[in-house]
Specification:
mainly alpha, 3 domains, flat
Length: 502
Amino acid sequence: MGETYKERMSEEYIWFLKMSILFGVFFTFCIYKNLSGIMIPVLTMGSVFFTVLFVKKAGVSLKKDCAVYFAGIILLGLSTCMTTNSFFHFFNYVGIILLFMAVMFHQLYDDGEWVFLQYVKNFFLLAGKWIVSTAEPFRQKFRENNGETEGKRKISKTTKAVLAGIVAAIIFLSAVMPLLMMSDRIFSEIFSGFFRLFDIGYLMDKLNIWNICGILITFLIGMIGIYSFFAAVFSVDAEDDIKEEKERANPVAGITFSCMLTVIYVIYALVQIVCLFLRMGSLPDDMTYSQYAHEGFWQLLFVSMINFATVNICSVIFKKNKVLNYLLCAISCCTCIMILSAAYRMILYVEEYNLTFLRILVLWFLCVLMIIFFGVIYSIFRSTFRLFRYIMIVLSSAYLILSFSHTDRIIAEYNLAESGTPDYEDILYVTDCLSDDAAPALAGLDRNEIRRAGAQEEVRVYFENIRFRYRDMNLRTWNLSAIQAVMSAERWNGDSGIKNGF
């Protein structure tokens, strides 16, 4: 299938190259020195438009449900211009790329029969092919040039004569021009200005050469990126290669393996229910519940992720068997108890030591992992269930909720309210560890509380830095959280409006 699209792209090389150049210009205008402005959702909408053009030019009919993927891409772009948190900026871009890869697989292949592991394999395969294809625009041009006839490549006699005359004139004038310029002041001033255009030092002073280089590099990333992406998409071989039922391993090995895990996990799950949830057991001496919670949290998280991989691998490599299915279901249920235990441990720890961005991220991940395991359990008994599609929907929806939630502001409001009277460390955490999303929460504090905490100077510098950082914000770089941060800074300083036109 891919060879047909690849040949089509090769035949229409000039069209694809022109559209890639046009996208490169559009990409540069939107994103250069502007990774989180209002132009990012415009860029995502434009990218969707170019994707539709490229797919249709390759002779592919667009599937209707691709609109869901495109909506997710645009929402991620919109989220980017609504926060100043660089974590979300980075993962929004990662999510956009992954959704583009997913929609291309869905568009070009019958991915309804793919299992989870095949999706993962094909994503890595496409990513590698994309990197390898970065030279494709130039490689294609080289192939075209090699196919030209010798007659077209020869320089005519007239052209050679003109070039010879130009070289001779340059050599002659290099000796005569200095004499002429010394003989007449006006003539000298005219040509001094002309020759200054070829003075590298003068050009470096007058032009921002690094800015020009940045624009050129950004353009090349956009132009080469989209061309090589579709060159990879149209050439990658992502056909179904999952083993047939008769080729799968004997389920007895899987049953033995799963049975041993199940026994250990059931005992561990009972300990969690009795000692942690019901608190019927006794803790070791000199240990509080918050210490007990923190001690095993990361280990439980790691084991839960291992169990997820284990259940999926066993479902693929072993023949279907009812006993194996029940054991895998038991492992999954025990894992859900582990996830609940890890979440409960984290909640206990937050109650003792307040929120941080990492803690809220972990709680989010545990909720997502729990929902994913519901799908895993269902897929054990129904092999036709599209687990990867389910996971992608859960992850995309949950991540969009998280990215739109302004977590830094939630953290600041929670910590400042929970402490009652915030101390110096509480305020310093907001100013030094959170993004500018948290500025409205800090601006809402009473000045007397800040004075009692001894953080007046830190808060003043914090808001001054915000005003300085966004002083040149314009329509292209507009960001909702940045505007709210500037408004908070102005309110803190007692101003009535936003300066610099905002």
